[in-house]
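Researcher: I need the complex structure. Ligand is magnesium ion. Inputs:
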Amino acid sequence: MTLLELKEGDTAVISRVSGGKGVSARMAGLGLHAGKKVRVVRAAPFRGPLLIEDISSGARTMIGRGIASHVEILDEKP
Amino acid sequence: MWKSLTKSHNSETVIALAGQPNCGKSTIFNAVAGFKVNTGNFSGTTVSYTETHVYIGGRTVRLIDLPGTYSISANDIAERVARDYLLSGQVDVIINVVDASLLSRSLELTLQLMEMNVPMVIGLNMIDDAQKKGMEIDIQALTSLTGLEAYPLIAVQGSGVQELFDAALKISENNFHRVPPVYDRDVEECIARIEARYPSLLRERLKMDTRFVIIRLLEMDEEFERIVAEADREFLEYVIENRRFLAEIHDWPESGVFASHRHALVLDLFEQVVAVKSRTGTSLSEKIDRFVINPVGGLVATVGAFFLMFAVSFWFGNLIADLLEVPLETLGSFLMSHTSGPTAMLVSGVYDGFTAGVGIVLPYLVPLLVILSLLEDTGLLPRIAFMADGLLHRFGLHGKSVVPIIMGYGCNVPAIMAARNLEYERDRIITMLMVPFIACSARTVIILALAGKYLGAGYTTLIYLGNIAIALGVSSVLSRLSADMSPGIIMDVPPLRKPYFHVVIRKVWARIMEFLLFAWPVIAISSIVLAVFSYVGIDDVINRVLSPITTYILDLPSELGITLFLGIFRKELTLIMLNSALGTTDVSAVLSSAQLLVLVVFTVLYIPCIATISTLWKEGGWKVALLSIALNTSIALAVAGSLAFLL
Ligand SMILES: Nc1nc2c(ncn2[C@@H]2O[C@H](COP(=O)(O)OP(=O)(O)O)[C@@H](O)[C@H]2O)c(=O)[nH]1
Ligand SMILES: [Mg+2]
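Model: Output:
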């Protein structure tokens, strides 16, 4: 499952970031790497980016859908 | 690359500010630098840096504000440039600026910087935000675990900055003892194995910490791999073998295995240094944020920013322009009455350049740059980008292009400056090439004055909509033509913050100075050339040279050649000169409706004005400026030419 399949408000743990070194390094720099628990705060209109919150630090990042489809997660819906 | 560089001066201490984007580097820089700053581009790139010379504790310090980077992995040009600079041997001390409210994320970069083993201190900025989040940071623990001195800061209030710089100046290669990050046993064993075989040739070529070089290789850093391959292929193979082994035993992709270990260290460090107390209620900024990230709130913010920009450039801009008119004219007639002959020509050229500069800077640049700075500093910019990204993607653009586009309706110059916020070169260039198609306020005045007056509201609206369609069409086509794909948006969304007046003013001032230093000479020289032209009475020649365009392609009277030519210098000149060129005050008596339409459409689309061209040149290089001229002119000729042909 990938981040893209989550709905607003869902939380999940990132298991892996694929899609090349550039993408994973950039995500890692923003603190979004395997093991991180994140929440989808909002999905932008017109198939725009997702607003993701890193639950431990509260830092927010927007990531385009193309990139979100490379972020694999462990499902953790309540 | 790095090898030839040696320490620059003996007398000067070079301090570089390094940190992740939005951590407050520039705020610290400005607090120290005041108003005397230089900006430049790193050679061969469009990545810019800012530097200043200041005296601190009796020493001359060269302080450099590097572009913000999330890591030193050289994922993009900014990262590569910042890293190369830090490794060049020119830097005496690194000040690693850290957003304390996002400490765990920021430490990822801190650990990487520590691995370079260049003298370094930590500036723990945004301590106020960290406290609001209930974070308590044990600075002594941080220092004893890393060996790095750390100082708390609230840069916007200037507090802690002095102490930080005093400490930075006391540190040198001799008394700097960081505690190198120690990884898992497997990783350390792997590093030790590689270190044992570290070729001496490489040690000579790369005057850097060997452990650092090994770690770069374990992180699949392409630049280091290239250098090592040149020096010793076999050694590189050995490193790769070890890297694969590490990836296998940890069941992790080769590219991420090292980063994951570093991340574990960061978490560990974070837990030992930070205690989080429970938080107190929701703050006002969080409430506003909740509103703004909703579709409705986001739309309100976006449309609001757009209208604010419009109001400012039309109402405020025109107000200022009107206020300036009388003093400038008085100055002009004073100058004219006191000079004659060739001197008069030179003086009038300088005067025209001066008025053109003032006519752009005060009414448009200042207010629009204030808005830009407010959007950046409050954190509204990323939120607007969030809302607009999906829509703009369809036109090959990017969420971050939204601000240049909005600004473009006021004045193209700050719009092109705002394109700096786009981190990928591809996106930035497409945005910079698209902006000159947007009808800025000067061109909007032409649309209103000619189309609005003689053709009616229907045509005016059509011209405006057509202009938007062309601008979006240009960006769509450019993005299809571009070889690379946009990697898509990944953008930090900092909390909404209250803007600080002095921060905004400094930023605006710095940008205005940049513009003036670069664009003013261009404007002044071209105005002098223009004055020479009109002194020699070259109007006729220009009309004749341009007549194939004016009469054949556009089906306009050849007398308009000179007005179109003047429009390159300032778009308003086309309108001002129109009456005198045609010898009438009623343009519709000389031009048919079709001709008027063609004239307006052509004026809106053709060559961007001199100020825009020089800004394009400064921000994107001369190739981008030339490409923009070619693109605008050919599309203007094609569109206006076909209108002339059809009507
Ligand atoms: N609350 C708070 N905001 C700060 C502080 N320092 C900087 N800022 C704000 O953080 C934002 C980013 O700062 P800037 O210097 O542009 O960051 P840079 O990207 O590292 O150059 C600006 O809006 C600043 O006003 C601070 O100590 N506390
Ligand atoms: Mg900055």
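Model: Summary of the prediction. The domain at 3-75 of chain A is CATH 2.30.30.90 (SH3 type barrels.).
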